[in-house]
Specification:
The structure is a homodimer. The first copy, chain A, is mainly alpha-helical and about 180 residues long. Chain A contains 7 helices and 4 strands, in the order H-E-H-H-E-E-H-E-H-H-H.
Chain lengths: ~180, ~180
DNA sequence: CATCGCATGTAATAGGTTACATGATTAT
DNA sequence: ATAATCATGTAACCTATTACATGCGATG
């Protein structure tokens, strides 16, 4: 049940309302996790019942700001430091990359080109955010999710880009010989 | 509904039974997708009903081997070549990495060390498989999921490893100054 | 005073995991 | 014989998405 721990982790950084947490998930979605508000609100209620978080402020339109409690911090720490069984990743983008060799070489090349461009765009976007941040480390805004996370995202998309270019080169080579190694 | 397309993609490479497809998902799980047999078998039934796959062989203990049909190939191609909306990734490993700055610097360093080692191990394992494959490209076995996929996995874990080392260096630097930039 | 964004909630449906259940073949 | 692996299926439960529903507060 990672949603619990994701919420605890977000609240450990800073207190927030369900609405804000939902927005944070929107920025996490391309890298690690996602949850919609219909999942967030009930789970916040349960976490509060369990004493892992608490309401620390009530604002304008029914807004409740939650903060992590000591018990919550302990629970989060335990989870983060526990080994964690072998990872299960769900990544439709990667799935498409893996299945691409089911296509003919022309289709594959088209797809790879598309993915190479897409990942390059993402990388460029993140590079911009990162260098803006490094120039003026404005603590709250700017970066999607903290400096470490941004660096991770940047390196991830750079990696995908390089991989796609490599794969295209492989295709070209295969073309000139025989079977294009699956 | 990506399960359908994942199954179509796997069957496009080669015909297989539900049992074999389930095993393939086990090898895909750390990179792209997963499904258990209780999901696979019913979905194969539906795909067959829709004429996207068909039974081409019946073996020993009720074993049915499926193959993709022309309609299935067309459907897969359409899906693969369609742009695909912005990716949603679910990756508990990455989630842990992102939340790590919620911890104190000592805990963070411990976690990063752990992750650096884990990703190094994975990278080494894949590097072994890849070079064995490149030496003797035995088509069916050896690689977890094809040469392109193995390369992707390898580069992914190398990237995570480098990132973890970079993050640790950042921590050290932050230590010597003030706040460790989130 | 109208529209947009903030803010929360619930219900219906779909997707996915775990547990239960069965039995045939192969290897030891 | 016995155990391990192959092979499928279903039921119960949990997780997650989409749709429905409501209303306050700020901005133009």
């Amino acid at each position: 049940v990672s949603l619990r721990h994701a919420l605890l982790g977000l609240l450990a950084r800073e207190q927030a309302s369900g609405y804000e947490l939902t927005a944070k998930f929107d920025r996490l979605r391309r890298f690690a996790w996602h949850a919609s508000h219909s999942q967030v609100y009930p789970e916040l209620g349960l976490l509060a019942l369990d004493g892992l978080i608490e309401v620390v402020d009530e604002g304008p339109r029914g807004r409740r700001t939650y903060a992590i409690t000591e018990a919550g911090t302990a629970e989060l720490r335990t989870w983060l430091l526990s080994p964690g069984d072998d990872p299960v990743v769900r990544n439709e983008f990667a799935l498409r990359l893996f299945l691409l060799s089911s296509l003919g070489p022309e289709d594959s090349r088209q797809l790879l080109t598309q993915h190479a461009e897409q990942s390059a765009r993402e990388a460029t976007r993140l590079r911009g955010l990162v260098s803006a941040h490094d120039a003026a480390p404005d603590d709250p805004p700017g970066l999607p999710f903290g400096r470490f996370a941004a660096e991770y995202g940047l390196r991830y998309y750079e990696m995908v880009h390089e991989w796609a270019r490599w794969a295209m080169a492989q295709l070209d080579e295969g073309q000139r010989e025989g079977a294009p190694g699956t």
